Task: structure prediction
Amino acid sequence: MSTSAPLLHLTTVVLFLLSSAAATDHIVGVNKGWNPGINYTLWANNQTFYVGDLISFRYQRNQYNVFQVNETGYDNCTIEGATGNWSSGKDFILLDKAKRYYFICGTGGCFSGMKVSVVVHPLPQPPTSSMAADHSSKDSSAPTAARGVVAAVVFGVLVSVWLGSGWMDLV
Result:
């Protein structure tokens, strides 16, 4: 295997880790999906949404749909003035602003509980350089999970290149 192949694999792994770390896909209702009779308020209260995350709805496409509405539409189960609608049965919606979002089913399912409201928070600020310097001067024996993953990937690639076995032979 050429020495560029492990580099290509490392690049792919790093890009995957970065993309998966950048956003979370919140599947509404998890394994129960978007259906009547489910407490979506409880589900939403157990999630933390950030700008850039996705909220996804899974449902029978000929039976249900999803509308993004304002608070009045949410409270009254009406789609008048909706700002978005989806009907694929597997909808991925980007949460691109820090605000409260309201989603309902527009086929009548809203009256049976098919509505959810989520609060999207701004992304946490990265530490400033002075905070990083303060943190690095303190004794910290436990590296973060991200550092551990990156270190393991880099170590694996370096060992595979050094041994000449290639990245895929180690996996």
Observations:
- The chain has six helices and eight strands.
- The CA atoms of residues 29 and 84 lie 20 Å apart.
- The beta strands are 25-27, 49-50, 54-58, 66-69, 84-86, 90-94, 100-104, 115-121.
